[in-house]
Fold each of these.
Amino acid sequence: MRVLKKIFKQNRMWAERVKTTDPNFFRDLSRQQNPEYLWIGCSDSRVPANQIVDMPPGQIFVHRNIANLVVHTDLNCLSVIQFAVDVLKVKHIIVCGHYGCGGIQAAMDNREHGLIDNWLRHIKDVYRFHQTKIDAIQNEIEKINLLCELNVVEQVTNVCQTTIVQRAWKAGQELAVHGWIYNIEDGILKDLNVRITSPTKTFNFDK
Ligand code: CO
């Protein structure tokens, strides 16, 4: 209980701090949200969307799951994308992975992890698509990190292929899909340069 009490105390102090800087912050924010960005990231506690890009509440619409996957049958993720694109009219969808991702690591070993193995199956598919390239690397950490990057690119493609994004582009809606990766070791974000802004534009990602 002591730990949870601490969390409520921290929350009060944070709210006070925010109000000191901007007395109307919560009142204004309660009236509407108007984020320009949808962030699809990993659930990893070390990769908190708002914090690593230093943005206050109200600016990023967030969806997080293990290994930042966009699965075509995942109603949860699709609903987030649909609401973000159709209702909030975000201008950017960012798929952000991170190096050293435990989900990616788990997908590469041959151990059993329980129910989550069904989710990791999708990463194993990405591994299979790029197996020759990945297996050519000797260093285990570098192997995992390359799959972390390739997984981001694959998920960017999945976002672009959703009927939601395809329809938005056909209707002339301004919308860019980006692939980024975060380094937990130094707190730095890297753009993987896979920015897609229309249904026709293709990209090459060559490491
Ligand atoms: Co992760």
Amino acid sequence: MSAQLLDGRILSTHIRKQISQQAATLSAQGHQPGLAVILVGENPASQVYVRNKIKACQEHGLYSVYDVYPDNFTQTDLLARITALNADPRIHGILVQLPLPAHIDSHRVLEAIAPHKDVDGFHIANAGALMTGAPLFRPCTPYGCMKMLESIDAPVRGAHAVIVGASNIVGKPMAMLLLQAGATITICNSKTRDLASHTRSADILVVATGRPRMITGDMVKPGAIVIDVGINRITEGENKGKLCGDVDFDSVRNVAGWITPVPGGVGPMTITMLLVNTIEAAQRACTATPQT
Ligand code: NDP
């Protein structure tokens, strides 16, 4: 048996067509959606992610501001910049690329973003709203995973969903969204005993650990839907320099019913959902201040 491919690039292309139309409509009403992206430091992976986000804005008619600051940028100056962006009516979404340099308190910075512009959904008010079932913004990566499940009409209600990884940006919000969709949830972390006994009972398996290819075919239930969030750079062997996920694609594809590839799976969906959240923020602003 070979799993069907859950292709994030194809689904993204489809959603992005709608994004372009919505951005054009909002722009015609004087509310061109605007996203500000802030990068502090010279982390090469972050530079690539941020460039891709800005490029996506430009391709789909969103206004964007890209701030790049050196490693030694102070927390005070960063907070001042966020305050200015909070007050800027051209900006509907603010994203601070993580990780931040060690001298900056990430929590403090994320809490400084106005919740109605927090398109990453990391502010405590948005995390709380998600927890209570009324999210203002859904964090982009789990939101993208939900869209992928929707795209194949996955029977989420009543399914057993196992999430391997419990971070605030992926694992925990993923669990909340699946729970709201009616799944029964198991969340695993690095201390979980006998991980395979959990993963083997998953109808839907979401893996977000940052541990390359840790989920192998013998850990997966036949026919399961497997969503691989991991992005890892291969450091040795013939594929050195290429990307791989947290799932061992070659062995799992022989067991699963559906599987996301890396690259080309969850990655493109994360950027797409960032645009969706920015459009939603602009639509709210448009409703709040109708043009006369
Ligand atoms: P974090 O490092 O913040 O969290 C990793 C989680 O995985 C932790 O909860 C950790 O457990 C758990 N974990 C680690 N090792 C194991 C193990 N052996 N068994 C079970 N659980 C384990 O990572 P992120 O959530 O930020 O990212 C995870 C992966 O997803 C990375 O590869 C990252 O690059 C990728 N990513 C991809 C995105 C995309 O757009 N495709 C977006 C964001 C992330 P514990 O809590 O006990 O430490």
Amino acid sequence: MAKILVLNGPNLNLLGTRQPEIYGSTTLAMVETACVDHGKTLDMAVTCFQSNHEGVLIDAIHDAKGIQDALILNAGAFTHTSVALMDAISSVELPLVEVHLSNIHAREEFRHKSFIAPVALGQICGFGPQSYLLALDALALHLTAAGRR
Ligand code: CA2
């Protein structure tokens, strides 16, 4: 069974509790449960982790090497700033899908730049919590095509 780590970055622990007009009313716990459940339908074992700290996220990416088959990352605002996260992703050579709840390209200019996109398989944004489930679908197809499951 393929192992997938779903990583969430800063402030995403607040999902469903503030700014529902932008990020909706679904909590992070609900998103994570949906990922685990959807993963089961795809024969994938999904583990979830959230941190507000850049270094902790980097450690989680490093620790995934040799353990996980692929990653899903919503790096939050670090998406637009973090060369360090980009380097960590490159270093582990694991397939990674970048996700966002909102369509970052339809928002402020500073959100259009992603340091994650160049080292990701692809980016899924704008579908709310469904973005994560679409990312699992994409990884299921990718890992099958690559003969890794
Ligand atoms: O749309 C996304 O998923 C984002 O990654 C969310 C980040 C934002 O900085 C990115 O540009 C796009 C912000 C996450 C903050 O999440 C909150 C959720 C509820 C209340 C407050 C913040």
